[in-house]
Amino acid sequence: MTKTTETITYEGGCHCGAIRFRVGIKERKAIDCNCSICRKKGFLHLIVKPEEFVLEKGGDRLTTYTFNTHRARHTFCSICGIHPFYHPRSHPGSIDVNIRCLDGDKIGDFTIENFDGRNWEENIHSINSEDVR
To answer: Minimal CA–CA distance to 95: which of 124, 70, 74?
Structure first.
C-alpha cells in the first residue's frame, strides 16, 4: 500500500551531510525516469508541494545546473556532488526529492512507476503537474 491518510515524515540529505532536509508525504509513490540526466544520476523522483519540504541546512552549499529549456533547476551539494532534490520542469513550483537520498534504505517503502523521459514531450501528460505527490 502506498497511500495513507497520515503524513509520513522522512529525513534525508547528501552524502557528506552538508545538505539536510525533511519531507512529509501521504503517498509513497515515486517515478523512475529514463531521460539522459536522471539515468546518469540514478534519480528516483518523489514530487512534493513546497509546503511539504523543509531544507533544514545547507542552502549555502547548493549549486545549480540547468540545460536545454533551463526550466528545471538541478541542485546538488557543492562538496560531495550528490543531488538530493531539485525544482523540476515537469511540476513547476514543486520540489522533486530523490528517494535514494532519504535516510536509511527507504526505496522498498515506495511504489516506483517508470516514465519515458527520453520522449519527454510525448509522455509528460502521464505525470502532469496536477498529479503532484
So the answer is: 74
